[in-house]
């Protein structure tokens, strides 16, 4: 009977140690999954940062392309304006001279009207709008009329 009791105790002890081993395996598995999840979170965070940097770079590239296209359009408009201004065709000298006086006379009249508006009205919004219009037209008409510097052919 001692053998039978010993076998029963051995079976019970093996079962207890088996349950304890299973429990320890489950606890170790929990910590492994937790560590794996933390590692995945870090990887996802890194991928998110990388994606955000790529989006930011793409946005800057798009903004630069838009700025370049806007600048090209502005230069084309200025070129068309200059070409239309220079294209007087065949006319007598006094007609060409009068055409050349249109822009300065209009500018002077615009500033005189702006001064008159400023003196007659006490509304700062209207006066500010008139000053803005006069300044914008003056800079558009005369802002880019300076002679361009000659570029040298020397290579630095």
Short description, anyone?
This protein has 156 residues and is mainly α. It has two domains: 87 residues; 52 residues. The chain is rod-shaped, with a radius of gyration of 42 Å.
Q: If helices are DSSP runs of H or I spanning 4 or more residues, what is the number of helices?
A: 3
Instruction: Assign a percent range to the helix content.
Output: over 70%
SSE arrangement, N to C: HHH
Head-to-tail CA distance between termini: 108 Å
Number of β-strand runs: 0
**Uncertain segments:** none
What number is the mean pLDDT? 79
- Determine Rg (CA atoms, Å): 42 Å
Strand content: under 5%
Structural class, judged by helices and strands? mainly alpha
Overview of the molecule:
The protein is mainly α. The chain has two domains: 1-87; 91-142. It has three helices and no strands. The protein has helices at residues 2-86, 93-120, 124-142. Helix 2 packs antiparallel against helix 3. The radius of gyration is 42 Å and the shape is rod-shaped. The protein starts with a helix and ends in a 14-residue tail after the last helix.
Topology, element by element:
Elements: H1 2-86, H2 93-120, H3 124-142
Helix pairs in contact: 2-3
Keywords:
156 residues; single chain; mainly alpha; 2 domains
């Amino acid at each position: 009977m001692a053998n039978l009791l010993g076998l029963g105790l051995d079976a019970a002890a093996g079962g207890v140690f088996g349950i304890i081993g299973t429990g320890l395996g489950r606890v170790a598995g929990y910590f492994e999954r937790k560590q794996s999840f933390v590692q995945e979170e870090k990887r996802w965070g890194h991928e998110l940062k990388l994606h955000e940097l790529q989006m930011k770079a793409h946005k800057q590239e798009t903004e630069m392309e838009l700025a370049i296209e806007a600048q090209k359009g502005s230069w084309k408009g200025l070129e068309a304006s200059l070409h239309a201004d220079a294209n007087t065709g065949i006319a007598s000298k006094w007609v060409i001279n009068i055409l050349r006086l249109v822009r300065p006379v209009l500018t002077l009249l615009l500033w005189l009207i702006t001064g008159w508006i400023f003196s007659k009205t006490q509304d700062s919004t209207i006066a500010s709008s008139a000053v803005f219009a006069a300044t914008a037209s003056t800079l558009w008409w005369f802002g880019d009329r300076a002679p361009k510097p000659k570029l040298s052919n020397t290579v630095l």
